[in-house]
Fold each of these.
Amino acid sequence: MGTMPARFASRMNQISRFILPILSLTSVLHAAQPATLPGTQLLEVDVDRSASMVEGIDRFLKRETRSSIDRRAGWWTRDAASPEAYAASIVTNRARFARAIGAVDEHLKPEALEYVSSTSSPALVAETESIRVWAVRWPVLPGVFGEGLLLEPKGAVQAQVVAIPDADQTPEMVAGLERGLEPMAQFARRLAENGCRVIVPTLIDRKNTFSGNEALKRFTNQPHREWIYRQAFELGRHVIGYEVLKVCSAIDWLSAQPGQGTALKTGVFGYAEGGLIALYSAALHLKIDACVVSGYYESRDGAWAEPIYRNVFGLLREFGDAEIASLIAPRKLWIEHSEVHTINGPPPTKAGRQGAAPGRWATPDYISVEGEVTRAARLVNASWAGQWITLLNGSEGAPVSPGSDKTLREFLNQLGVSRPQLLPPGKAPLDQRKSFDPDRRQAAQVEELVQFTQRLLGRSESVRDARLLRTVPVSNATNWASTMKPFQQELWDEVIGRLPRTKAPPIARSRLLKEGPNWTSYDVVIDVSPDVFAWGVLLLPKSMKPGERRPVVVCQHGLEGLPEDTITQDPKAPNFHYYQGFAARLADRGFVVFAPHNPYRGHDQFRVLQRQANLLGWSLFSVILAQHDRILDWLSAQPFVDAKRIGFYGLSYGGKTAMRVPALLERYALSICSGDFNDWITKNATVDSLHSYLFTGEYEMPEFNLGNTFSYAEMAAMIAPRPFMVERGHRDAVAPDEWVAHEYARVRRLYAQLGIPERTEIEYFDGPHTIHGVGTFRFLHHHLKWPEPSETLAPSR
């Protein structure tokens, strides 16, 4: 290389004289602080810990999903001594299955079907040489009807069937009244032409026409099935359960119809989404003598990637398709491996219609179908059961057409139909209705379920009150924590989901991050379980004296946030306007601060974790609770921490954490919920407010049956008698002040009844979704017994 020009060399010397002292000072500062915290190993650098955390949890949940098959046996005590003994031994499993799919309401048993007609549309829809087709409906729940077609053979009725099409098929299609299916695939019509009385219900479809609120001028691209699922799930119901109850009501009516000399047998035949409903209905209703599931049956290990309206909380903990099938035995079940229409996701997004969850589904793989059939046969392997489950497919595992001749022949024989004639269908029936519109029927079916669910929402607070806040005896604050133990156990085990607790001491790794004028920060990673770790940033005040133990404030970020977001005091930082550097400000005031990372980051990546966890009876907060439990283990063991003075303060999603984690982890001495506290059940389930999560893409928010068990006031009751505070900006768009005030009033009343009204506060301020840090800071100083600074502190930079 050549020699530097003299002028450039002179300039570099000047810069060196300026920079070298700074570098030297920096070295001294870093040398003054250890590279790691005592008792920790050195933490590696240059790692995206947020992404690593999500990826690790994903591996953990996939592994747990695979191993769930072997663990399911622990939920069953099958007695194969006789059919009667077997039926008695699975009663509790059947009851848990009904609860899981939301089929918990007592369905009506219709005395008669109602004909659906008008001056332009006769109830007798069509008639051929062999069958008549009627438009009918039947009551299922208050204000909810099943609706579809009744096909009656003109000859003797030899059997009765509920034929359930796919969600995107109308009853008219499988009855031959509407184009779309080849005649041989019109299984409802073929069954009727072979002597069966057939009811064909309408399923909630996958369009999004009615997914929204016309009065609010707000719509989504959620399929109708997802639109019902989201609001129902929060209230312990499910679109699956609603439709199973529609089938059960239809079965009850059919079972009451007289036969000619002997009672008629009754079966269900379902295709694709209808196959799911058929399988689940037969598992619950013992009057179903035989069942065909076409195009739906396989290992459910990948169910988390299917459309979200199939999300059943805790399903894989106890039930795969094989276990569900075992609830049908020894009644006859055929699994028809048939091709289905591929679902690539919800309807496309467009202006004014967004927010649907991703989800795909295609024809089940034959190996998966065969394996699950084999597993079911092994679960119920008794001489009295015989060959109760049969797989039907084409050559070399190829799919067959729905309702193949072989399938229908065996099904009809089982139902007692003598000599079924499986000839090509005759002349197609002609729909006589002049102005029939299936979309109007679909609109009515959707609206009935919306209104039923919204009535459940309206009653949910009184249901919760009857369980806890107005019925549990309030004696005094001293005994209240023990009174809450059963409710805490229920919330953790049955609603949020509890991960097995790691017994080994926490192993932590750390590294020096930054040294400011008032505190030093460290990156800290703590092992939780294989592939799962906790990570956060610890801020240690420099004013600490040797041997001194100080209170800790755990400062929790919100959605898509990072620990640094709570610490930075740079007004130009992307998220400063939310957090206002509150973690650093508290460290400036002398608190030890820990800013943990919660894994709600990565858009759909973390929401998929919720999908995976739900199927195992867990949730994202199951993982977060396990992480915070280990964080508390580690913090409590540090020589600079007073383990009895660890408080929690979270904003937004961190506010959600502030409600759930301290409610269950009693080592948190207090909790502050900022920017999230409100009427949480209404927030998740109402169709009548623009504040509702039903209109957003946050599809992970519903928690199964939370509406009938624990809203925020009930969670605050579990935090009591420890101090609890709400921080609320009037212009925070999360919810209106009225929702916040209503829910907080229930909390304030409880604290007053306990004789500790001074331990709870709410601070309103004229601001948006942000940390205010005025009343909350005073609250922390007072209840964590740490003196407030005597003068205004300059921010750490």
Amino acid sequence: MTDSMDGVSCLVVIGASGGGVETLSELVSTLPATFAAPIVIAQHLSPRRESNLGDILGRRSPLPVRIVTDRESLENGVIYVIPPNRDVVVSDSDVRVHPDGSGPHPSIDVLFSSAAEAFGENLIAVVLSGTGSDGAAGARDVKYAGGTVVIQNPDTAAYSGMPQSLAPSVVDIVANLDRIGELLDSLVEGEFDVPPVSERSQLQSFLDQIREYTGIDFSGYKEPTIQRRLKRRMIATGHQGIPQYIRHVRSDPEERRQLVSSFLIKVTEFFRDPELYAHLGEHVLPELIAESEARGSDLRVWSAGCATGEEAYSLAMTITDLLADNDAAPEVRIFATDLDQDAVAFARRGIYPARTLGNLPETMIKRHFVKVGDDYEVGKHLRAMLVFGEHDLGQRAPFPRIDLIFCRNVLIYFTPVLQRRVLQLFAFSLRIDGYLVLGKSETVDGLAEYFAVDQPRLKSYRRVGDRVLIPASRVHDNAVAPFPQPRSVGPRQAASHSSMGREQARPRTSLGPAEQTLLGLPFGVIVVDRNYDIRYLNSELRRLFGIHSTAVDEDFIHLIHHYDAVAVRTLIDEARSSEQLVSRILEPIGSPVDARRTLEISCVPYLPSENAQDLLLVVTAIDVTEREELRQQRGVAESDVARLVRANEEVLTANQELTNSIVRLRAKNEELLVAVEEIQAATEEVETLNEELQASNEELETLNEEMQATVEELNTTNRDMEARTSEMLAAAAEAESTRQQLRAIIDGVADPLVVVAGDGSTILENAAYTALLADHDGAVLVDASHRPIPDHATPIRRAASGEAFSVRFAFAQMDHEAWFIASGTPGLTNDDETLVTVTFREANGG
């Protein structure tokens, strides 16, 4: 990257804010006097006083420092400092300042973006200490242009906000301040040196090893791109040659992951090309939606190379707005895939910095996003459309029956051979007359006979021609088997499937950590099917009902002793028919006097899938003997309150664990759905080959035996695939079952209950609490002396302070006062955040 005699060939741009003066002073002091590139510095400075930054840096730097007052030509080995209250724009030969617009100044985003346009892959952008997120959007432009992004280690920065605001997929190097000067010199001096022939041969062998480690084949990527990104990792880790670096990667799995991530391009943004999305929204998608309605099928979209998800969510927003007033709208499924595990995880999370939404209208943000702190989370209605998964276009099978494929700026990084294979995948996937959208620099020249031009300037094509077969992959084992492999069926499971004792074998699944927590709660929990047969039960329920046998798959009603079994069955039947929670008190009968326990049993139905035959019912049993005795005495005992509070805390703990489990299961479910689609594509391919073999059989009877053997093998493969698909669907049903069980238990708590965070927001509330607020809407809270309670002393505000408390208050309304006792109990979440559980119990009048 060294400069030529005719001018500047590379550029370094640096952005800093809070703590930046000291940080910049230390950085420039580590630069060599022979530094062979210009440096432009944008530091947030107060416009109300004169800046001395240039003088401060000049005393520490071995390089000359200039303050840019209007326009300066770029020279190697010169540091350019932007004054306060000015923004800066860089061209390929000079740097210019102009009066500022809005936001912090000078704008680091403006500097980075203009420099990326001028210098492309020859730009190095550095983000140092500072608050806020200025520089995050500009760094994305640098990365997209092929430049290098370096950030100061947030753990050592005086203010970590700016370095941490960059998405991990954008950052090439994270370094401590004392190493950045050395890194910049190495990047400027040797970034794009072509390795000798011997090392290039080693590199190809190394890429084969990377494929064996990760399943990702980079041999089809353009060699200069691989070399540049490899060199950056070598500089970041302090290795001078490819052989030394290869040895380091072999012994360090984390560096292997960093290298693979650096090879992949993961930079995108919402509605990156507005004209293209306007064409999709006005012409392409309405046509595809109408065709899906006519067929009675789903609208299926594939975002291949989705990076961090912005383009996939942009498609979802466009489709959602088109279907807003369509009562006959088809179901929509958007498959969003990428090679990079980190990028897919970021996209699946669906939370983006506010600055990345800067080009979206405010009305669109309100429709499709939810504000979470300083960031924005995509709405659940968008998230439900998308299935994220890891997918290698070079090796994996495609998705079948796709209406629209969106693959922009991915093919440009592939060799012609790999480009042709990917186009074959797309030709197989698309329905006839389906659409393919590529990047502005990409074409279908490698397989033009299967794609007709729709809009040449927008690189939109329609699928034409005959059916094509799935091209062979380099790694055949991974063509239909994604990571991870489906779990095998054990002997006990196999036996249950073959059993003739019931009309339909039930799925056998082991309980995960969340379910085990649920069944370990201090009150009885049992799950039965519509025939009252037991699916799950915990030890507390066994104790309450005296069940000592294995019980699973047995009739619950016939196992009930010392209680009215008819009443229990009636309760379950009422819950099933009414499709809502039903509760009642169950008195003991026929048991010894000293062992009689009064139970409060509740039952709620839920459907783990859309199949009505899968209806299950959750029954909970709580020992309320003491509570019932106290009610008969018309008193409220503090011990009862404490016991219920402890039970509520345990329920909340189980809720948090189940929530975490559901998130993990959802991610796993999406990966399984991606695998199902690939298996379906492979199945259709097998069916196509089978038809061709049958035709050949009629023409060439002499080859009949060989063809029949091939057909049998293919049918066996198809059955194996169907069995694996059933396992995947069972896992998805299990995840939904867990979520429904949790909701049923929380709403089954009788007393009003609310969980409050430190900022006063409500984390969780049950139906009883919602009803309490509705009943006393507009009422004034008063204390025991009938004086209004100030805002900071209300139960919710006291809970926000994280304190334990018990307060007596009333809702004062026009004609009466309703007295309650509110008790707050603090607790810690897994993130060490203090949450306070507040319960409300009715009290005698004031």
Amino acid sequence: MRTILFLSCLVLVTLANAEKKLPQSLVVAPGTPELTDTFNQEAAKVLLDKGIEELVFIKRYTLNANHYYSEYVNSKWMPGGNLCVLNLKTGKVRELVPEFNSGVFNRFDISFDAKRVLFDYKESGVEGYRIYEVNIDGSGLRQITFPTKAEQELIDSYHLQNYHHGTDDLHPIYLPDGGIAFVSTRCQRGILCDAKDLFTTKVLYRMDMDGSNMQPLSFNPVSEAAPTLMPDGRILYNRWEYNDKAAGNAKCLWAMRPDGSGTVEIYGNTLTQPETLIYARSIPGSPNKVVSLATSHCCPNNGMGTVIIIDTTKNIRTREPLSYVTKDVDMQHHNGFHFLIDGEWVHDKTGRPGRLLKDPYPISEDLFIVSQKPKGYSWDHPHAYDLFVLDGEGNDTPLFTDKSISCWHPYPLVPRPVPPVSRAPLNAELAKANKAECIVTDVYVGMPGVERGTIKYLRIMEQIGRPWAARNRWVGDKNGMAHSAVGIGRLGVKVQYGIVPVEEDGSAYFQVPADRNIYFQALDENYMAVQTERTYINYRPGETRSCIGCHETPGATPVAARHHVAAALKRPPSKPMPQPGDSRPEKVIDFMTQVQPVLDSHCVECHGSVDPEGGLELTGTETDLFTVSYEQLMRGKNDMGVPYIGEYESANEDRGSADISYREAYHSGSHTSPIATILSNGRVPLRNPNGEEITRRLVAAHEDISVTQEEFINVVNWLDSFGQFYPSYWGIKHKAFDDNPFYRPVVSFEQAVNPEAPNEFADLYTNPPEQVEIPERKKL
């Protein structure tokens, strides 16, 4: 009850005081306390009583990158420190790898028998992190990962400001099957919300203990981090993704089996604040609870924050599972920190007004070891982070301090049980075809207000990552936060793999492509999206997965399962099929080839360039990056105040932070767009509080329009992609280059999903065009 009351008060105080500014006297923080060496025997005794005699930890200067995930990209090069062992009986510290005292250690893991340590280490400022192993007595040091064979080529091709190397291998952990999981930039993708293209994506990989058989476990377009092992043998990790939602919020907790199968949300995919959950670990003795650090996204913040506990038995799509251990620190903003001062939350970017924490390790639900900066020091002070013992009420006790350097990542040096090896049964024939199977038991579960029989199909979609190979070296193609223009409010390119039928009982059984970022749209008889899944799953080759319905939560039970076998399971799995009018299931989303022809045929007569009806011009006249028609549709509203594209702000990816809470069926997309109502001659009513009146007026004004089914599907398909303009990341897009052979090319599906520059475009990226003067963009 105390937790619930606290959270209620926290929300009220947050709303009232989140933007209160810190008094200047506190910003200056006079009288910063002097750092001293400390070993607190009383704090050590608390751990000794738990059977912990030694801790492994890292000494290093504070990493001071500007984003929660970018420590390997743009932290200032400050070499020094080591991988250390603290004896809790004597307070003595020994270095495990004394020969590595001129580089930087980042994170590590201890073997199940507590005899070996895996760690990532960066030897110099112009090299990447690599993974090593050493015995706990300091012997047997060996390097496990090495630069790629093409490392110098990557450096020459993709050299970035403050990022002087090709690839990084980070955050290793031991797996119960004898392998190693880690995160790596070997996926060679760039962060989507990064117009300057300074940040790279790192995703989960695995390999054998000797570094062989390296393979990606995830194909996320953006970054993942900090894997740990759960008691059931699954990997718990931080995953950042923004599929049809704001780019800054959804850095949440997911889990997967060691082979990458069974990917599932643990908590936070619709959590607006705190934006970032990272460094999560299962709590011993509390199998349904995890401890995590909550941080802001950036500017400044390099993964410092507040300690929280998440109870996964509660509704994971709400704040209900979340409780604060350190109640005086919070992350209520896209950047900086919040401190509770004299009963009010104060937003601050220095970190000085209060403590900041990192790397909470749970001994129990009421006892943790953490790295912590005391009040009075800036968030990036090189020496200010020490080891502390933290109780369940957030009370901290210093354990060990080295005044010359910071201390990080405390981890008890004790043996632990080897979790079971969690594996999914894989279908070898499916795996050979790089396919997986999906079973939806009842699509109507989680879609209140949708009448049974409404959903006829599922559309199989993917958000694809932006490969390094698509990096442009010419000015002009950036749009919003996107390095290569995709569309207004769009950062990640979407493609689709066709549709599959849904049975009358709401069930579906079908094949999907493996190792892709797959999500679904539930379609009605008009091929319009009733609901869109704003996340994605990486299905592994040969995997069979099942879900109950839309927006399910743990413990949900489909109605159909209580009575009979789902109808879809009484037949072989469906293979994706094309929509009417499409020649094949696979399809790109391309405004110019799929939507503009419909406008040209049916709309420009009244909405041309000369005195257009309602001031709406729908010609394909090119603007700097798009067309007049596209920009007016994306940015405009009709005379009744309804956006032409419908409600799409909740799906706008081109924002640092926004509300990403769950949206129910019919909330956005084609059902909320007047365009669909017009093209259907009112057969599809507008989902709007004044929809009946608006529909009547729109139909009366456009009664002569008659489109084919193919034309209608092309347009609503585009609306349900939330307005994507370009089909891929490839090609030159700014009008200043309109005489270039690579200007706004028509791109095939195979080219759009290719992580390497297609042969047709290879010369563009090896021999970029000379720069031209780009005039200041005119807004329509």
Amino acid sequence: YTLAVTPDGSEDVVVEVAADAATDGLNTGPASAQSATATWDAAAPSVAITGVPARINTRAAFTATFEFSESVTGFATTDVTVTGGTKGQFSGGGSSYTLAVTPDGSEDVVVRVAANSATNGGGNTGPASAVSVTATWDAPMVMLVLTPSTVNESGSDNVSTVTATLSGASSADVTVEVSVPAGSAVTQAGATLTIAAGATESTGTVTLTAVDNDVDAPDVEVTVSGDASGGNGVADPADATLTIADDDDDLRISIDDAEGVEGGHMTFRVHLSAPSPGDVRAEWFTHPSNPQSADPGDDYESTGGQVIFDEGEQEKTVEVWLIKDGVSEPRETFEVWLTDARGTAIGDGVGIGVIVNTDPMPKAWLGRFGRTVAERVLDGIAGRIESAGHVDRGTAREPGFRGAIGGVSIGGTATASHPAGHAGGYGGNGGSGAPMAYGDSPAVRGLRQFLTGTRFAYTGKEDNAGGRLGFWGRGSHTRFGGADGELGLDGDVTAALLGADYARDGWLVGVALAQSFGDGGYRGPALAGANAAPAENNAGRGGVIETSLTAAIPYASWRASERLKLWGAAGHGIGEMTLQPQAAQSLKTDIDWTMAAAGLRSGLFAFAGGAELALVSDALWARTGSGRADGLVATNADVSRLRIGIEGSRPFALPGGGRLTPTIEIGARHDGGDAETGFGLEVGGGIAWTDARLGIKLDVEGRALLSHEDGAMKDRGFSASLAYDPRPDSAQGLSLALRQEVGGPSGGGLEALFANDPLTRRMQSQDSGRWMAEMGYGLPAFGGRFVGTPHVDYGVSYGAREIGLGWRLSPKREPGAARAPDLSLEIQATRREAALEPPDHRIGIEVRARW
């Protein structure tokens, strides 16, 4: 039997006979299926491109042939790309195709066949990858030659001859048509230049004769062009320039270049070449430089006018107002143009104005930011040194964890000389106008409140060498202000510190990591008087600034004796700064920060009854720099501070068990560098009175910079607190607390490590000046095992007040009381009222458990 089989054309062909498919009358067969395989082995077609010349120097068409290794289908002109030329007629079929190609006449011609553009009879596509052939362009170049290239506008030397040359001989004649723009200050004789085949220079010439205009004017430049043809497709020559030198001595007007500083007028001198015969005038206007440097409306006033010379006058001036934006920029330029002159010709009609920058931003702000960061870092490190037990009074630091996270007490009892809040900085504002406005969103305020309520420490047990390892952290928020000339500055700095140290014998060594965020603003005053800008530019310019900084600060302390302790710290950090001038593009760059500090405390006298007198001194240096950015120069701001003072305290026992402890601090300081500078006198003090019998505790402390050579330098703080609890041994009964805080830190000494504020205080805003009061009454709850305290709170800060209601539940801790679980609950509702803002309502719920 026979069977005709046609392959599909893409895979192996298998012919199979089934088992028991036939019989001989008795038996069936075959006993099992039988098969035979024809393996598919068709190859993809390939292509070769022929007929493309290796080198060309003509626009004449050539024919490219595409020879496939076998007959194919589907191949079309769209599968061929030509660069440096155009495609013409396409024909062919089977295994051979042709395409006419015409070169553009100025570059290489590349003929390219795309991959998988044709299909063979077996269904395979090819070629496997793109195939291309290049015809290299090799035509000679034409150049126009002017002899001479500069002529006078009159006399015997006012003619220039134009010739043409080739970079290499051509196999065909080259023709060049020469032309000048219509209305040019020349007359032209002849137009055609011919370069014969095999030659490189033209045989004919074209002459250009200058036209005398009898007017004193600047030199004139005339463009000479050529249109080439023939020569196997040579390209057109580049334009040549003929300069016509003015030889007239008539009157002409010119403007000089000028230079000026921001915040004043730049004066341009406009002058005539000879005294005016009368009624000579010209228009003038400002114009951006090319490339543009200074921006009209942002860096200078876009303006113009008319300058008029009366008879006999030879010099006038025009003025342009330079806008002071406060930002330290590179030197910028703009132009003043003269036009539409009457009674004179224009000589040098463009004056270049160079703006010399004298603005203090961002240097002025960075100096104060860097100083504030350094002071916050040193406060944290010094507080750690004091509170870690490495102190003159000999208190040992105990192992364990204690502190507050976001104001929530963790671990043992934590106290503070004053509650977490603003640590004040340098006040004052040398500018005028509205306060600076910068980002202070609820999220930012929340972060600040969390950080200022966070202070913790962990101390490990004593090791075999007698030392102890500790970890600590704290947050702070500081406001600063100042002035640099007429520029007012202010800002906020929020910082978080995380440190580790090791104490042994009289030594403490450690390292702290600091993350600081700063934001603030700057504003210059409005200018008035003879140098005032036009009304639209007369307002003081300002802007906002944001910074972030990450730093590492190693530190060490050594107790040389019972009376002398030395300490030192140094650090470096990097970060970013974004400066947003008013109504201008924001500027962003990197910043770096370096600081070094050292200090000592020496006990001078110790008296009976616990009185003591100590000498304290410290020195601080910090440098904050910013990198160069587009529109902003690189800068470095150095600040320094040297302080020396005396601290004294004396406790007094009062009849009835009370105790009165006055303290006093007196010191001198010197500030230097790129911020407020000069000498100043500081004074601080306080008094603490406790009377357990009456249940009253009063604590008042304050500090102030009495005087400073820089009048804008201010540093002060005040706090007062009054607490009344007739049953101090019990949480039950009436309790009353009253506190006021103003300005910066009220204590001139080092802040304590921990803070444990109730939810009431954390619900209130962290303003730098406020009164706070709370009245509560403790009642037994849950069988007397707990104390429930309903309370009313009232707070007043600058421009705002807060009213709160709350209830606290805490375990009863009185001697003999039934043991209650260490579980506390507090609910607080607060209404905040601020000027020009709608009321703000908040509810806080806090649950704490300890086991």
